[in-house]
User: Which sequence fits this backbone?
């Protein structure tokens, strides 16, 4: 299991209201007690933080707000001593506009080598309109004009200019950055927006009507997504990772709707895994989840790669919130009240069942910090919101702040144990009820459910292995039943009434208590040990 640390909201060690490396180091005991295998730390590099660090100004420095490279090295060593691997987040599609390369591009004339590291060019209509019709994922055009009249491309915020990956200098710089962190002991990287690096020659129009904020990603020959040439970059990165002992690893962030296209990133000579955003987006229905599981396994096993699973991350609503709605799909571009009311009690029951379903699957599971506490999205008052999505859409889209509110560690205190001086995003009243210390030792808590599931996942021979998912006959349409060899069974009930358990074995974990023997609770799940008693 890979635990995603959203650094600025995990734990604050120096009392400035922002999480940091010192805070993370002070909580390694918590992480190893949870039974994780690795941490993925979201970007900690020097940055003006206009997109929470996904706007990097210096890829070889840790932002002083978070710590120093020396502290980073100590953290890596301490994690390794605790048996935890460390995965960082590399942002290769764009730099920050504060990066020295971008400053040099703006200070150099059109056509210069400095400008060629980015996509900077003349506009249309006498230069007064952007060079093409691409839109920013965060809202508005993907182009901003500079003083001398040229325009630069940014698929995200205007403070995130896209790099030009046709440039040999860009390619060698990133290999050098990877080496810098690998040499420090980092075990791998999650690759931000891994599908977008290569753009079609000439940057042709997408041809979508105005307002299509993120155009159809399934279309063939998309001019800035999933182009075949991007794979060359990852083949080179793979060679670099394999030159280390032990070899280093990569996980791609790739929002592609087609599992087969996705699997191309994990061919044997490319990346090791992709984040499974297809599973994350699925509706919480027996049909939807089964389809997502089958498609994900088929796509990755076709190229011999492990499958990964995730229910949420820092870019989407927390799973308790999404599953508390009538429509449980992830609906990009829709936010706030447009999504409909949330029943958090129901969301929490479903999220507990989803944790058991997910942790029973073969492959690696990514857990976003706070999901193990059953946190819901917090309501962040408008004046406190910081996400560029909120800012660029002028309040039309709420953005991602609700899923990024600092963690509660204790039931009370200024910031519920997050740190000694408040929290950079306001924590709602009642946040302390979900605190780590309130849940620890309470068998009915979310945290203890995660701990038990993770410890069984290590102990049971079927769960640690690669044994396939074998679907079995279910008592109803809204129930999923599967087994894995040797001797493991999982039953998930998506419906509002308890269902009979159709497998013969001992129940070893149940998502919610209070249901009759031999039944799986409504909106619940059970794990069964199917081995004869004397072999368990
Ligand atoms: C990825 C990150 C997201 C960021 C964006 C731009 O999708 O996960 O948080 O805003 O890339 O770098």
Assistant:
């Amino acid at each position: 299991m890979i635990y995603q640390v959203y650094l600025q909201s995990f734990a604050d060690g120096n009392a400035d209201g922002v999480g940091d490396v010192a805070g993370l180091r002070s909580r390694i005991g918590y992480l190893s007690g949870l039974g994780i295998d690795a941490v993925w730390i979201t970007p900690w590099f020097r940055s003006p933080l206009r997109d929470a660090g996904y706007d990097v100004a210096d890829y070889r420095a840790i932002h002083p707000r978070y710590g120093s490279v020396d502290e980073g090295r100590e953290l890596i060593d301490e994690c390794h001593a605790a048996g935890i691997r460390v995965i960082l987040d590399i942002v290769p599609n764009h730099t920050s506009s504060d990066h020295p390369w971008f400053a040099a591009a703006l200070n150099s004339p059109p056509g210069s080598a400095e400008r060629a590291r980015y996509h900077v060019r003349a506009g249309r209509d006498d230069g007064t309109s952007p060079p093409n019709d691409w839109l920013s994922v965060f809202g508005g055009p993907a182009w901003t004009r500079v003083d001398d009249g040229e325009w630069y491309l940014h698929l995200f915020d205007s403070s995130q200019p896209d790099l030009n990956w046709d440039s040999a200098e860009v390619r060698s710089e990133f290999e050098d950055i990877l080496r810098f962190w690998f040499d420090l002991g980092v075990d791998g990287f999650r690759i931000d927006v891994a599908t977008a690096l290569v753009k079609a020659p000439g940057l042709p129009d997408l041809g979508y009507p105005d307002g299509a904020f993120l155009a159809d990603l399934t279309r063939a020959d998309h001019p800035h997504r999933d182009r075949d040439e991007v794979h060359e970059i990852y083949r080179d990165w793979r060679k670099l990772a394999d030159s280390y002992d032990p070899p280093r690893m990569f996980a791609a962030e790739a929002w592609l709707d087609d599992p087969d296209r996705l699997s191309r990133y994990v061919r044997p000579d490319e990346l090791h895994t992709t984040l499974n955003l297809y599973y994350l987006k699925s509706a919480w229905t027996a049909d939807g989840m089964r389809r997502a599981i089958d498609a994900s396994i088929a796509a990755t096993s076709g190229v011999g790669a492990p499958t990964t699973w995730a229910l949420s991350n820092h870019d989407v609503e927390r799973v308790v919130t999404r599953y508390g709605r009538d429509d449980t799909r992830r609906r990009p571009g829709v936010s706030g009240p447009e999504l409909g009311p949330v029943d958090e009690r129901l969301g929490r029951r479903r999220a507990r069942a989803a944790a058991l379903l997910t942790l029973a699957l073969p492959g690696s599971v990514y857990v976003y910090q706070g999901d193990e506490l059953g946190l819901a999205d917090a309501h962040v008052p408008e004046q406190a919101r910081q996400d560029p999505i909120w800012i660029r859409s002028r309040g039309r889209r709420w953005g991602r702040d609700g899923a990024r509110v600092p963690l509660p560690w204790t039931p009370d205190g200024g910031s519920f144990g997050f740190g000694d001086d408040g929290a950079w995003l306001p924590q709602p009243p009642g946040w302390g009820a979900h605190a780590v210390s309130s849940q620890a030792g309470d068998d009915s808590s979310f945290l203890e459910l995660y701990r038990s599931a993770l410890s069984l996942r290590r102990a049971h021979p079927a769960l640690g292995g690669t044994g396939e998912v074998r679907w079995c006959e279910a008592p109803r349409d809204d129930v999923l039943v599967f087994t894995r060899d040797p001797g493991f069974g999982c039953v998930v009930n998506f419906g509002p009434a308890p269902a009979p358990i159709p497998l013969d074995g001992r129940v070893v974990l149940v998502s919610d208590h209070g249901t009759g023997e031999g039944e799986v609770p409504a909106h619940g799940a059970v794990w069964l040990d199917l081995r004869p008693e004397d072999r368990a």
